[in-house]
Amino acid sequence: MDFFLRFAHGNVLIVAVPLLMIVGWWRWYRYQGIRYRYPLSNQLRAAGFGSWHPRKLFLYTLRLCALLLLAVLMAQPQLVDSRSKAMVEGIDIVLVLDVSDSMNLPHHQDDHRSRLEVAKKEAIRFIDARAHDAMGIVIFGQDALSRCPLTADKNMLKEMVATIDGDMVGPNGTLLSTAMLTAVNRLKHSTASSKIMIVLTDGEPTGNDISDEIPLEAAKQLGIKIYTVGIGSDEELVLQHPIWGHVTVKTKLNVELLTKFADQTGGRFFEVKKADDMRVMYDTINTLEKTNIETPLFAHYTEFFMPLWLAACVLLCIELIVTTFIWFGL
User: Fold this and answer.
1) How many Å apart are CA 72 and CA 232, to the nearest integer?
2) What gap in Å lies between CA 116 and CA 98, rounded to an integer?
């Protein structure tokens, strides 16, 4: 298996090694230790009986090498499996989720969960099913917001979806086309040959939204398939209000516009009236064609601590043994 070495804390190594080399140079060339002078030693040196012993250089080298190894250990060296990339099937997907105020209505007369709650639950289930796909999230209401860029980190994606609420973008509005253009912007740099956008909404764009032709043309030029999902219907929904009793609510779903987005980009329109319909919709999208792409799998790091630690301990033990039993004394 092919490996290469990396340092988890490279900045420590960049600082520690040069600093240690400077200190080592000063200690060897500039430091003046205690010297003892005897008249007889001067006469012997003048007569040519002086000699140089490698003791000082040997011990100095041992200690410097041990300190260098300890400095490398501080940077946390790791062996990385260089074959951690593999060919997998996947596509790039952006979920575009409506979080306007109407999404807080019950999903169905027999299901008291809100439309947003059901949409988030099924979106998390869909994320789990797309193990090798890069996915992103765009939410919209009064404004449009890129909640998460394209990423393969499924745990982060699910956390992002679970914490979505209308207050992030303002619930009083439906900027559908603006949100779709934001999603196109996320997909425009994608290198995957298959890119899709899944748009979930329960209403129609408000008057301050941009023209629907702008995101449509951009998606067609970039080869992005748009799958549109209409949540609820234009039928009247009777709710039980705690104060006002039976209240009739009706939301207008622009089926014609959603169908237009899907048909002109090679996608498909789904009308979701019940929670089960939304699950069937996601399962249908899961049957989409996939394209082979090279993607990094979970990186496998092996800590390279013990070999260097043992080497440093061996050097320090050698120095201790030599100074205690061989070159001891002044």
Assistant:
1) 61
2) 8
Residue 156 above 60 pLDDT? Answer: yes
Q: State if pTM tops 0.90.
A: no
Is residue 310 within 8 Å of residue 60, measured between CB atoms? no
Task: Dump pLDDT digits (tens) for 235-258.
Answer: 555 555 444 455 455 567 888 999
How far apart (Å, rounded) are the C-alpha atoms in residues 40 and 51?
Answer: 15
Q: For residue 149, which of 159, 141, 157 has the smallest C-alpha distance? A: 157
Question: What CATH number should be reported for the domain whose range is 87-294?
Answer: 3.40.50.410
- Residue 43 token pair: 């006469």
What are the structure tokens assigned to 82, written together?
A: 């260089």
Q: Of 52-61, 215-224, 291-300, 312-321, which gets the smallest average pLDDT?
A: 291-300
Outline which parts of the chain fall under CATH 3.40.50.410.
87-294
For CA atoms 122, 232, 289, 190, the dihedral sign is negative
Burial class (CB in 10 A: 0-12, 13-18, 19+), 74: middle
The DSSP bridge pattern shows strands 195-201 and 224-231 to be parallel
Contacts of 209 (CB under 8 A, 6+ apart): 174, 175, 176, 177, 178
| Best CA proximity match to 269, nearest among 181, 184, 178, 199 | 199
Q: Please state the φ and ψ torsions of residue 215, each to the nearest 5 degrees.
A: -70, -30
Residue 208 tokens read as 């301050």
